[in-house]
Amino acid sequence: MCCAGNPTTASAGLQTLLKGGNAIDAAVAMALTQPVAEPSGNGLGCECFALIWHKGKLYGINGSGPSPRSISIEALKARGFDKIPMLGVEPIDVPGAVATWCAMHERFGRLDLEEVAKPGAAYAESGYPVSPNISRLWDDAYKQISKLAKDRSEFEGWMKTFAPAGRPLKAGELFRSEAMARTIRSIAKTGGRSFYEGEIAERIDAFMKAHNGFLTGEDLAAYKPLWVDPISVNYRGVDVWELPPNGHGITVLMALQILKEMELGDREDPETMHKQIEALKLAFTDTKEYVADPRFMKVTPEQLLSERYAAERRALIGHDAIDPQIGDPRYSSTVYFCAADGEGNMVSIIQSNFYGFGSGIVEPETGISFNDRGFNFRFEEGHANSLAGAKRPYHTIIPGFLTKNGEAIGPFGIMGGYMQPQAHVQFIMNMLDWGLNPQQALDAPRWQWVGGKKVQIEQDVPNSIIRQLQRRGHEVIVMADKVHMGRGQAIIRDPETGVLAGGTEKRTDGQIMCF
C-alpha cells in the first residue's frame, strides 16, 4: 500500500511495488516524484525526515541540512536585514533530501535506484495533470513571486520553471519539466553524488555565486544525513515514535505525556478539547524555546519527556485558558507520504521546502527549487536556535510511527508547518482514545493553537463546543478554509490478518493505492 497527497505520487509508489520493490523502494520512488507532483510543498532542493520499519526494527534518518558555513546574523545585517527573510537566496540551507533518499535506498532498498527513479523522471518529462489543491497553492505562490521577479533576477528561474506561459497552471493542465527529469535521472545514476559533488553541484554553486547566495559547492560536498535513534512515549499501551530534535516531533510526545494521566471524556466534550489545547500549548511553548541543533540545546530530550516535568506542566491546566509560559525541565520537533509492503516493512516519510515553493529560488537548468529552512532560525544572539553557519535549524517536519509490544502498527504523518505536532496529537487520540479508524481519525474536525489564547477551529466543530471554549477564555477563530489545518496519510496493519488499512486527508487531493 502507498498513500500520498496526490494520485501521481501514490501511483509511482505502486508501480515500484508491482516491479518487486519493497516499501523503501516505493517510498524513495514517491520521494523522487513529489517535487514534480507537489512543487507547492517540496522540491529537489528540499529536506527530508523518515522513520523506517525494516525486518522488525525501527530506524530514523534526519535529512535536514545545516546552514551555509558563511552565513551569520552579522552577514544578514550587513545586507540591511533586521530579520531572516522568507524568500530569496538568504534563507536557503544545504538541501538534504537527495542524500537522504539515496542513503535510505542504499541501506534498505532492493531494486536498482535507476529503476526506482523511473516514475518520477517520466512524470517530469511527459507531464501529469495538476490537482485542484495544488493549483490553488501554485496560484498563491505566483502572485507573490511574479512581483519579485520583475526586479530581481534570482526569481527568474522560478518563473521559467513553474510559470513558463507567464501564469500559474490550472487544475487539469499538464506540468512538464525536462530539467527536473534530467536531474532525477542524474541523481539515480550517480547515487546522488552529482548533486553534491558533480555537475549539478557545480551548477548550484555557479548560480548562488551569480546571485550573491551563501550556499556553496563546499557546503554541498560536506553534507551527510544523520541516522538517529527515534524517541517515544507509551500512550494507552501503544508506543508513539517521533524523531529527536532538531525536529519538533518531541512536542507530540510531551503533550501526550501530559494528557495520559488526565481524565478525558468524549471526543466532542468541550472539557476534553480544552485539556488537549492546554497540553499542546505548554508542550509547544517549551519546544519553541529549547529545540535546536542538538549540539546547541540547553536541555535534553530526556528532561523534556520526564514524568516529573509532565506532572508539573499538567498541574498548570485548570478550568480557564492560560497564556503559556516557558518551563524549565532541568533538575539537580511540507509533503507526507507512506508505504508498506507484503513483508512487513513500512516507511513514514516527510519532506518540505518549508514555505510553499520554499525560497522562490530555482536553478533553471536543473529545475531544483530550494528550501527556505533558514527562516526557522532565531535572529538573536545567544539563543539555542540562533542563526549561525553550519548549524541545523529548528525543524517543523515530523514523520510518526506506532508500535505495540515491539510489533509495527504503522506509519502516519500530517503536513502543515506548526500544525503538524498538533495534528499528530489529535490523530493519535482519535484512534487510541476514541477508537476511530485511520480515515475517520484524519477526517475528524481539527483545531490549531496559534499563540497566546488564540485557537483556530474548523467550522464543522459544533457551535455549542465553540461557545463553551470561549467561556473558558479561549479566543476562538472559526476557519472556513481547511487548507491550513494539515494534510496527512496513515497506514495501519492488522496484527492478526496482516490486512492494511489506509487513510488520506479530506483536506488534500490524496490517494491510496494498493494491491
What labels would you give this structure?
6-stranded antiparallel beta sheet, single chain, 515 residues, 7-stranded antiparallel beta sheet, alpha+beta, 20 strands
Outline the secondary-structure elements.
Elements: E1 2-4, H1 7-18, H2 23-37, E2 47-54, E3 57-63, H3 73-78, H4 97-108, H5 113-116, H6 118-126, E4 128-129, H7 132-149, H8 156-162, E5 174-175, H9 178-190, H10 193-196, H11 199-210, H12 217-221, E6 226-228, E7 231-235, E8 238-242, H13 250-259, H14 270-290, H15 301-304, H16 307-314, E9 335-340, E10 346-352, E11 362-363, E12 368-369, E13 400-404, E14 407-415, H17 420-432, H18 438-443, E15 447-451, E16 454-458, H19 463-471, E17 475-479, E18 487-493, E19 500-504, E20 511-513
Parallel strand pairs: 16-17
Antiparallel strand pairs: 1-9, 1-20, 2-3, 2-10, 3-6, 4-5, 7-8, 8-13, 9-10, 11-12, 13-14, 14-18, 15-16, 18-19
